[in-house]
């Protein structure tokens, strides 16, 4: 037991009391919905005055039926005895119905340094300056708890935001503190589908295209092509032809004597100097008389 400057005894025991909870619609204070503060009975103020509590006054609210827990501040002490008025969004977080029993306990929370929020819908990020709107709204809040779903009212529309991360604890005080705010992708956000370009079709090569072109044949040597002439001036049997150089045997022309050709060569005959191989003995020219 401790005594203050005015001789009032102070107790080190925390404040803890059960109340029946009701939403702000049961009291003429609609602005309760814009923050996290509750309205408690006057007896709670008397009890708190006798305790060594930290200011600002923060409380832990607990639903014994569902074991859900959150935190809040206090706005006024004007509620009926045994009753407490809460924002409706807070009752939804704790799964409380009108008239349910809730346990209220004094709490001390560290000052927050970081909080990560996740909007339910992506249209909240379409606001011209969502961080400024959020900063204005959070001025009505005393603390934030991981797992809570707070409501932000802007331009006659309500936006719901989840508290998914906080530092240095799961529940933090945001009164007179610089707290860094980060946003996670909204719950209804979908990754844009990547458009895959159609595959480029390569025409299949036909069997003719697939077959490499034949290599050009090397020119073969052909000796003594053209029309030949016999030594006796008569036209030979092989008027035209070619003998490839790859022949293994070469026939030899046999003559008993050589005589200068007489007469005029037939039309179309090749000029003198060309030889014809392949004449037999039966076709040999007659021997010239001496």
TrEMBL record:
It comes from the Eukaryota. It comes from Physcomitrium patens (Spreading-leaved earth moss). Residues 185-290 are annotated as: Disordered. Residues 15-110, 111-186 form the Ubiquitin fusion degradation protein UFD1 N-terminal subdomain domain. GO terms for biological process: proteasomal protein catabolic process; ubiquitin-dependent protein catabolic process. InterPro entries: Ufd1-like, Ufd1-like_Nn, UFD1_N1, UFD1_N2. PANTHER family: UBIQUITIN FUSION DEGRADATON PROTEIN 1, UBIQUITIN RECOGNITION FACTOR IN ER-ASSOCIATED DEGRADATION PROTEIN 1. Belongs to the UFD1 family. This is Uncharacterized protein. Keywords: Ubl conjugation pathway. The keyword Transferase does not apply. Residues 239-257 have a biased composition (Low complexity). Signal peptide: none annotated. It holds the Pfam family UFD1_N2.
């Amino acid at each position: 037991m401790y005594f203050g400057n005015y001789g009032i005894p102070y107790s080190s025991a925390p404040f803890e009391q059960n109340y029946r909870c009701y939403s702000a619609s049961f009291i003429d204070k609609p602005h309760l919905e814009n923050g996290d503060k509750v309205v408690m009975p006057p007896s709670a103020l008397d009890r708190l005055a006798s305790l060594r509590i930290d200011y600002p006054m923060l409380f832990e609210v607990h639903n014994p039926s569902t074991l859900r827990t959150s935190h809040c501040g206090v706005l006024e002490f004007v509620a009926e005895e045994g009753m407490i008025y809460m924002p409706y969004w807070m009752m939804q977080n704790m799964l409380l119905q009108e008239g349910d029993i809730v346990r209220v306990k004094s709490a001390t929370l560290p000052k927050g340094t970081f909080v990560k929020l996740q909007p339910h819908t992506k249209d909240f990020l379409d606001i011209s300056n969502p961080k400024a709107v959020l900063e204005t709204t959070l001025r009505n809040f005393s603390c934030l708890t991981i797992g809570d779903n707070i409501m932000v009212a802007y331009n006659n529309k309500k936006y719901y935001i989840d508290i998914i991360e906080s530092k240095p604890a799961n529940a933090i005080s945001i009164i007179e503190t610089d707290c860094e705010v980060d946003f996670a992708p909204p719950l209804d956000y979908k990754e844009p589908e990547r458009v895959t370009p159609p595959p480029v079709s390569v025409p299949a090569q036909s069997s003719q295209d697939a077959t490499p072109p034949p290599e050009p044949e090397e020119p073969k040597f052909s000796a003594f092509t053209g029309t030949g002439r016999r030594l006796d001036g008569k036209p030979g049997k092989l008027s035209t032809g070619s003998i490839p150089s790859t022949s293994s045997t070469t026939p030899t022309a046999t003559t008993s004597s050589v005589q200068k050709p007489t007469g005029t060569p037939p039309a179309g005959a090749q000029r003198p100097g060309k030889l014809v191989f392949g004449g037999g003995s039966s076709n040999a020219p007659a021997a010239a008389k001496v």
